[in-house]
Structure of Phage integrase family protein:
Amino acid sequence: MIADNYENEDGYKLSLTDDERALVLENLEVRDSEFGWILASYCGLRTHSIAGVRFEDIIKRETGDWVVRVYEENEKTNEYRETPIPTRHAIRIKTTQEADDELEPSDRVVQESMRTFRRHISQVGEELAEEEDEMFRHLSPHDGRATFINNMLDNNVQELQVMEWSGHDDWRTFRDHYLTGLLHNSAKHVDDEAVKKAV
C-alpha cells in the first residue's frame, strides 16, 4: 500500500496492491458494495458513475474482452467511454442478474445509495486496519479508483490510455493526482513534454 497526504484536507489517499484490493473485496459482505468496489478498483469509476452503471452496460466485445460502458453526465461533463473490467468480475455481475428473476438488464448494478456504499467501504477499512495495516482506516471508494489507475500505470499501460479509461481529459490534473507519490513502481518515468504534445 502506498499512502500520500491530501493537498488541502486531512487524511490520506491510498493506492492498494493487487492483494490488498482483493482483500477489501473478500471482506465486503453486501453484494452491492462488492460490485461497487469492483467498479471502483478494477474499472476506475467515480462514485457518481458507479451509481449509473446498469447490468446491460457490461458487455463482451467481439475480441473477447469485457468492458463497462460509462455515461458521464454531470456538472463536469457529458461524455461516453468504455473501460475494461476483468472477465471473472464481468461474468459474476452478469450471472447475478441473469440468475435473479427480480433483476432486469436495465437495473442498476449497485442499487444501494452511494452513501451506504461509502459506509461499507469505510467499515471494511476499519476492520482491516485492526488486522492488517493501520492505513486501511483511511480507505474510501476513491482509493479504489486510484488503485485501478496506478495498477494500470505500474503494468506499463500508456498514460493516455489510462486517462481515456478513467475519464480524465486534463493531463495536469491526471499527472498531479496520480503520477506523484502513489505509483508502486518507483522507477516509473513520465515524459511530461511528450504527453502534452499528444494531448
